[in-house]
Amino acid sequence: MLTQEENELLTRVGPGTPMGETMRRYWLPVCTSAQLPAPDCAPLRTELLGELFVVFRNTDGQVGVLDEACMHRGVSLALGRVENNGIRCLYHGWKFGIDGSIQEMPNHPNSASFRERMKAPSFPVREEGGLVWTYIGPKEKQPVFQRYAFMRGADENRVVVRVDTDANYLQLYEGGTDSSHVGILHHDHVAISEDTAVETVDLGIMAVDDHAPSLDIVDTEYGYIYAAQRKGPIESDGTETHSIRVTPVIFPTGRIIPAPGSFQYYLFEVPQNDHVTSTYVICHGDEKADRQGVLQILGLLDERFWNEEDCKFRAHWEVNRMNQDRHRMDKSFTGFSGIEQEDAVLAISMGPIVNRAKEHLVAADRAVMHLRARLMESVRRCQAGEDPIGVHVADYSSVVSLIDTTVRKGDRWQKLVMPELDTSES
């Protein structure tokens, strides 16, 4: 349980707020590369941490991030023309480069001196891994750009999806650090087929046995990593085993989720503002990724919930009870279909910002409690003039999650994912 003051500290992300100023210290995704499909395509209007930006791809294919409002009179540049390696405001024709330089001022022809002195607010950009990343914090504190394993290899090995959900980022982030809900909320995906009736499953046994894991949490330089441990089978020699699922939590908004085979899911819960979150999902592996298959797993093929054109998640109470199919619940546990669909619906159902002072937490919530504590630690560091957690970590390519894996009792799970985390004596 958090106090109202603590809840406000963690959830408010606009300019000048403690969490907002902390998040501005990191490189963050601002859109997907697919949202800017070609040089001189339509610009994108998007919000990040309570501020509005225009993102555009110039004639040479380079991406720029500028304040949405034209520096001249405040008209939206998202309505502008993208042409000749710049973006032109429709109001008076001022044209800007990706670096904010003023290229043309038709209503001020003798403008050389002005153009040399003035620039539109622009922000550093990196396009990597199917995402456009930007840094909007203090220039003097700009960190090195971080690298992930999904930025390597062929584009066909990666699926990138953006889902804009009407809920505070922390509701979605906490859901991603909660292993005990996986086999319950996502029961249809992880346990039974569409053809199996829910009433054949003993949910009491599920909750006590499979879905009340013990948690082992280790702090890291980038946030923390936790292992959800469940009882495994007894080996032929009588040795007890555990089933281990390991999830790295990467600050300020990321995590890595295990998947079958060589694939890993990387998720970033990036706040547009206090009430809307852009969830970026990247599925990446050593072989070609099936985009339609990934969208099906996520529950995003149903256009009542989401489409590629605007990336907005559409479930709301006012729209047919979140589009829940109550008639299908004799065969489906939730009446929804797909992991992201279910996660997003439940986050929205809490309201824009959930009142955590009314919670009643249990042992299975330890990773969620730890997330809050580490986020508050990061904010306090920033307020004290120190660097927030993980801001200078440059390479995450060796950070991996671990799908349910059997470990003999007494063996250290740390050896399987990051040997440097193994604290056992040699």
TrEMBL record:
Keyword Oxidoreductase: yes
Keyword Oxidoreductase attached: yes
Molecular function as annotated in GO: 2 iron, 2 sulfur cluster binding; dioxygenase activity; iron ion binding
Listed name of the protein: Phthalate 4,5-dioxygenase oxygenase subunit
Alphabetically ordered keywords of this record: 2Fe-2S, Dioxygenase, Iron, Iron-sulfur, Metal-binding, Oxidoreductase
PANTHER family according to UniProt: BLR4922 PROTEIN, IRON-SULFUR DOMAIN CONTAINING PROTEIN
Domain spans labelled Rieske: 27-134
High-level lineage: Bacteria, Pseudomonadati, Pseudomonadota, Betaproteobacteria, Burkholderiales
A Pfam entry, by short name: Rieske
Originating species: Pusillimonas noertemannii
